[in-house]
Amino acid sequence: MDALRDRDPAHIGAYTLLARLGAGGMGQVYLARSPGGRLVAIKVIRDEITDHPEALARFRREVETVRAVRSAYTANLIDASLDVAPYWLATEYVSGPTLGKAVGERGALPAETCRGVLAALAEGLAAVHAHGVTHRDLKPQNVILATQGPSLIDFGIARGAGQTALTEAGFAPGTPGFTAPEVLIRNEVGPAADVFALGATLAYAATGRPPFGMGEPAGVSYRAVHEPIDLAGVEPELAALVEACVAKDPAERPGLGEVIARCGVRAALVEDPFYAGLAQLAEAVPQTPPTGQAGATVPVPPAHPPLGAHELPTAGAPNGYGYTPTQVSGPTQAVRRRRIAPWRVAVAMAVAVGVAYVLMAPDDDKGGGSAAGGDRSPGPSSSAASKEAPAYAGDKLDRTLWYSDTGECQLPPEERAGNGFMGSISDADDPDAGTETLTLDGKVRIGFRDKYATEGKAPYYVTVSVKPPHDIDPSTGKPVEGLLADNANVGYTSKPVDVYGGSNPGDWKYVTYPDDFNSWVRGKPSPAIPLTNDPGDWTVQFHHIRTPDDYSSVFCRGFTVK
User: Fold this and answer.
1) Range of the structural domain that residue 122 is part of
2) How far apart are CA 119 and CA 275, in angstroms?
3) Neighbouring-strand partners of residue 308
4) Which residue from 162, 153, 167 is spatially nearest to 57, judged by alpha carbons?
């Protein structure tokens, strides 16, 4: 979780805000405290979502779907205001790490712990299915390892039996690698698809690896449809159960009752010392908002009565327990893409205002473009620095997106660089041009440096990723059309460079898009596409890289191709 920002309100309704839990295409999620002291997660819906009739109808439909669902395995909906903007929801706050975070920090789970988690999640899904609701996005990031046992969260695309989905035509719900073949091919959603996702989630827990590998989302989804799941090294009996859950034919998958029986659980999961250790990875909860935190109370109309369980969205945020609302498919971007001439490229650089602008303004040097920096303090820590330069940055699952309307990325950085770290984005042919609107001929110059670098620091390698607004088909270099589009990869990356390299450690280091960028899948590069191939909001991230498969974002920005 992150501290509140100056522009955040101090209260939403009767709730006192304590911290930011995450953000995404649907809105911002806060940790808050009720007047009686109960911790809740409050999701405030973005204005542009409420202005889109179909998206707002989808959101209200989700509330109705989960109104009747009340389960020990889900985060219950406590309060809501859905009549007049701003629209918001308050759900129970479930303390604990996501399964994704736990595996990332502790590695694969022992077979017995996996059986306990699998049985508990199967029991939870059965309770949800009993209400006629399917989850539709079960994955490690949507499982919270609470002290009393796992909880299912993020029912943002949950659907009741007989309801019609309001997702954009041509896009399947779910996450590549965890979405069942029948959903990808026929958009056929049902309880069996949740069983597939359950099996894929347990494969990740048992191996510590993505169940169908990494790479472009379309490739991952192709493997989920046509290739076997990765269960190398898993105890045979557990592997057989997971294989049954992820059978390509939904009719061949076991029911949840059979899954529970085959787990053969003989003791409560809370008695498992390994599981207890995972639950202790939960991040400490702030008791009060920061002193002097700015912001005003958000007035709201009388709220609805308690509505039952609702999604408590999550993200794979590495620092603690993060929530990210499920993103609506991109109708607004699709419309924008059809309206504009492909030969004209304009990059609009969002410039923050007020305090945020002061902290992010460049110094008097000509770093060019829109920069990020801070007050005088050491640059990136050398304690975690790599000794040798990695050859490249491989692809990985990454849902980070930059939005031009807010000028921010919806997920926080995975790692903190020092306050002296600066990044810039500018016109490759006119680096000194103003940053509010840059008209380009197709190339972007991206720079970075440590403003307060000194001699003798250990190498700190940085790679830059540039991510188009949509999934790209490698064979055409154009956006993917159809059910497999998800845009959950890191994008195109530059060759890693030591931020302290060169004769002057504090000098700017530059890379040019698309010239210096490739997409790397299984060690093989594919060249970056021209900006004109995919108009819309592009995401730029700066990463601290240690090996081709081990790198963490330290700063995020973006630009818009019009």
Assistant:
1) 99-279
2) 14
3) 77
4) 167
Instruction: List, for residues 322-341, the tens digit of each pLDDT value.
Output: 333 332 223 333 333 333 33
Query: What pLDDT score does 52 carry?
Result: 64
Residue 113: give its domain's CATH number: 1.10.510.10
Position 154: which residue type? D
For residue 31, being part of any structural domain is answered with no
- Is 478 assigned a ligand-binding role in the annotation? no
User: Would the pLDDT of 294 be above 90?
Assistant: no
Distance separating alpha carbons of residues 8 and 506, to the nearest angstrom: 34
Rounded CA separation 535/94 (Å):
39
**pTM for this entry:** 0.53
On the question of pLDDT at 363 being above 90, the answer is no
The answer to whether the beta carbons of residues 317 and 400 sit under 8 Å apart is no
Asked whether 559 and 347 are in contact (CB, 8 A), the reply is yes
Number of structural domains the chain divides into: 2
**C-alpha distances in Å from residue 182, one per residue of 196, 229, 246, 251, 452:** 10, 16, 11, 11, 54
Q: Per the domain annotation, does 303 fall within a domain?
A: no
Q: What is the pLDDT of residue 451?
A: 82
Two tokens, residue 194: 């949740």
Joined together, the tokens standing for residue 249 give 């034919």
Tell me the three state secondary structure of residue 46. coil
Rounded to an integer, what distance in angstroms lies between the CA atom of residue 478 and that of residue 530?
A: 10
Residue 523 token pair: 């060690």
- Among residues 337, 333, 471, 465, the alpha carbon closest in space to that of 25 is found at 333
Q: Which of 495, 539, 540, 542 is nearest to 516 (CA)?
A: 495
Q: Are 540 and 450 in contact (CB under 8 A)?
A: no
Q: Is 534 a catalytic residue?
A: no
Catalytic residue of the set 51, 79, 83, 137 = 137
